[in-house]
């Protein structure tokens, strides 16, 4: 329990607004709930949220200590009152979460709170599986990233050993990730391999494709398979043999079939015609191959997980089976 004594400079403020200003990590919905439950008292009694505070009033807050901390990158998860997660799979070591398009995986210059990692940490905190007060260093962490406007499976590690193993397996290409996308046009070859070199321009945040090695360029190999074509659009499955920034988007554009909705590498007139503002790309399938030992995660060997509801597939190719 913490107490505040209202001074003359704070007098006249509403109770809920005073608490919100002094406890910025306390989610607004949780603040209102605590007032209703009388866990926030004025002069020893429960009070309404819109009561005006007076000089000398004593506020008693029966609230977890974490909410009294100062906001920083490590505790922003506390501001998420009701985590919004579509969990594909969960066990004691990891979570597989279907990230919705539009959500950032980590904090960036445009979003600090409503990120996937904050939702995951809030979820585990509220389940009493993790508390930053218990740990010296480790916090639940993401093992892979997906662009803000791309949806699909993201792996979150609940402990340091899982994070280490999954990172090793990703580097060793022992996890198979498959993507669905909708392309503008039909690939000339129904299926094939796109090989080249990708060079990232950090200033422009875009990537260029080269057929020959270039200074700073990284090898990129993408396998693709056309599942269906109709009305100038194609449903294509892609599998990454390398994991480069914007790899599928740039590679499909290079063969003349950019992704529908892609504002950076796509066709603006087609995107506007279909009213699509996000690239139609989804990391919909994950398989744990594990040809080598995976330690405490050996039980995942050979398991495959699939997102059943890929929004753009339902919209443009609803009869194509998952």
From TrEMBL:
User: Keyword annotations for this protein?
Assistant: Isomerase, RNA-binding
| Short name of one Pfam family | PseudoU_synth_2
What residues make up the catalytic site? 147
Question: Would the keyword Isomerase turn up in this protein's UniProt record?
Answer: yes
| Domain of life assignment | Bacteria
- In what residue span(s) does the Pseudouridine synthase RsuA/RluA-like domain sit? 93-253
Q: Which GO terms describe its molecular function?
A: catalytic activity, acting on RNA; pseudouridine synthase activity; RNA binding
NCBIfam families to which the protein is assigned, alphabetical: rluA_subfam
Family of the protein in this entry: Belongs to the pseudouridine synthase RluA family.
Q: State the protein's name.
A: Pseudouridine synthase
Taxonomic path: Bacteria, Bacillati, Bacillota, Clostridia, Eubacteriales
């Amino acid at each position: 329990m913490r107490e505040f004594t209202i001074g003359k400079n704070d007098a006249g403020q509403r109770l809920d607004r005073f608490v919100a200003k002094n406890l910025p990590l306390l989610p607004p919905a949780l603040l209102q709930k605590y007032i209703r439950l009388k866990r926030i008292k004025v002069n020893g009694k429960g009070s309404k949220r819109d009561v005006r505070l007076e000089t000398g009033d004593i506020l008693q807050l029966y609230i977890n200590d974490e909410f009294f901390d100062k906001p920083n990158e490590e505790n922003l998860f506390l501001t998420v009152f009701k985590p919004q997660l579509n969990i594909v799979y969960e066990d004691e070591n990891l979570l597989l979460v279907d990230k919705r398009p539009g959500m950032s995986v980590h904090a960036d210059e445009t979003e600090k709170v409503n990120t996937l990692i904050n939702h995951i940490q809030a979820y585990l905190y509220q389940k009493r599986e993790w508390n930053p007060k218990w740990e010296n260093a480790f916090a639940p962490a993401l093992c892979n990233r997906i662009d803000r406007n791309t949806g699909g499976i993201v792996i979150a590690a609940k402990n340091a050993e899982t994070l280490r193993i999954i990172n090793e397996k990703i580097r060793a290409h022992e996890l198979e990730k498959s993507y669905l996308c909708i392309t503008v046009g039909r690939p000339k070859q129904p299926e094939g391999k796109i090989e080249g070199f990708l060079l990232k321009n950090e200033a422009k945040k875009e990537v260029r494709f080269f057929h020959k090695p270039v200074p700073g360029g990284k090898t990129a190999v993408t396998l693709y398979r056309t599942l269906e074509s109709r009305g100038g659009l194609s449903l294509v499955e892609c599998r990454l043999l390398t994991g480069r920034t914007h790899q599928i988007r740039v590679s499909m554009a290079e063969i003349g079939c950019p992704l529908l909705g892609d504002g950076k590498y796509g066709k603006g007139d087609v995107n506007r015609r279909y009213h699509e503002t996000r690239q139609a790309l989804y990391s919909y399938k994950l398989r744990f191959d594990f040809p080598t030992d995976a330690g405490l995660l050996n039980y995942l060997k050979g398991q495959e997980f699939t997102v059943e509801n890929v929004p753009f597939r339902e919209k443009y190719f609803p009869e194509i089976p998952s």
